[in-house]
Amino acid sequence: MRAYRYVALPVLALGLAAYAACTSDSFGVVVPNFDAASIDAPTSDTGPLADSGPDVVEGDAAGCPGDPAVTRLCSEQCTDISTSKANCGGCGSACVDGVKGASTCAASACTCATGNYCPTTGCVDFATSLTDCGACGNACETGATCTSGVCLKSVAQAGVNCALAVAVTSTTIAWSDFCSGPAVKGCPLTGCVGTPTTLIAYLGGRTRYGIASATSGGTGYIFTTDNNYSQGLSRVDTAGAGYAEWGSAQDNAGPIASDGTTIVFADQGATYRAVAGTSGVTKVMNIGGAHSGFLNGPPIATVAIDAASLFVATPTSIYRCAVGGTCTGTPAADPTLLSAALSKVLAISSDGTKVYASGGTDFNYVPGVTETIYSVPVAGGTPTAEVQLSPAADGGGTHLGLIATSKALYWGSLDGGLYRCDKANCSATKTAIVPSAKVYGLAQDANYIYWINHVTGAAMRTPKI
User: Fold this and answer.
1) What CATH topology corresponds to 145-463?
2) Every domain of the chain and the residues it spans
3) pLDDT tens readout for residues 22-74
4) What's the pTM value of the predicted model, to 2 decimals?
5) Per residue in 178-193, pLDDT tens?
6) SS3 content of the chain, % helix, strand, coil (to 5)
7) What is the DSSP string of 411-450?
8) Closest CA to 395 of 370, 375, 374, 428
9) 107 — alpha (psi -120 to 50), left (phi > 0) or beta?
């Protein structure tokens, strides 16, 4: 801004002149001595005073010596904002120190000799910081750790190293325990350090295989399948009360999935639907899979559910039926055949737009098998290879869990651990969350991914991205 200063107006000059010319008459009255000529004479405006240069404004480069690209007036001092710790990149933009030491300003950006810089916490270590785990502002929940830039929390710290599958309600994490009978056990989501609660005790000859959760009337329930008994589906509440046989004459039932209200599961010859608050099951597809024991391949067909559809996958194909429908016609036409071009499918998941399937896994659980995760549109079509997984680096091998969220894919590997990628570009973004965990099964709620770490015997969770 340029400052201009003007002389007094002519009227003001006239008044001052008149005042100066005042005299007293013989009666002591002060009478102005008007000069008609001076009144009538025009006055001249001298115009603006000479410009003394631009005003210097806080944050402006003008008036300061040095490179105008990086020099600014800050607190009445000409400052190099490319190196000033108190004014890094702009006046008042101060770099702060942190737990990893002092910060500096270089090239107009705050930086750290050790660690990563965050505007509010200064120099931190993204790999371990509980306030900035993996990124600035990504705070871990109470009781969690930051491990390699990922927030991890142990929900059950011991006694779950024989789990086959896991499920969660709003209050409880539960798992099918293959060693204790088998039985179904659980812990509050707030965590348990000691012995987990037995929700369903061992009943002679019964193998609790799959597990899922659903809610009815505000109460959370755990549903479990039995692959060694003709009563294929059972239900219990999260306190271990109200046990009931929900199925009827399903043979060697195994995989199970839930959308929170509706349950879908399969036995060796068909796929069934159940509802959390209504006893009984309905056959929805005449598609299942041969089964000769959990560890002696191939397992029965795997299942998934989204808001609109139920899905069942055999080792080579994926089929779809409406959530409330009955699709018991010829398998190639009813239900809808989405794809028959897959190989050795073991895990599937739907995000409502695509069905994702792991393929290439050896059903005899031989470690070290290269695997591919495919996607197929829910309307059907040619499979697309989303990512190929090598066993050593990114969780190829045998998968007993696959979850598709709105942004990411998560998978667990018996050969490795827990992994994740961004769906927009899975191949370029695959990440090991926990590289050595031997994950059996995955579960999710609105905020977290849950899994069983068979190396440590703990039930774990990590925030979704």
Assistant:
1) Methylamine Dehydrogenase; Chain H (2.130.10)
2) 1-55, 71-123, 145-463
3) 444 433 434 444 444 444 444 433 344 344 445 556 667 767 888 988 999 99
4) 0.79
5) 776 678 999 999 888 7
6) 5, 40, 55
7) EE-SSS-EEEEEGGGHHHH-EEEESS--EEEEEE-SSEEE
8) 370
9) left
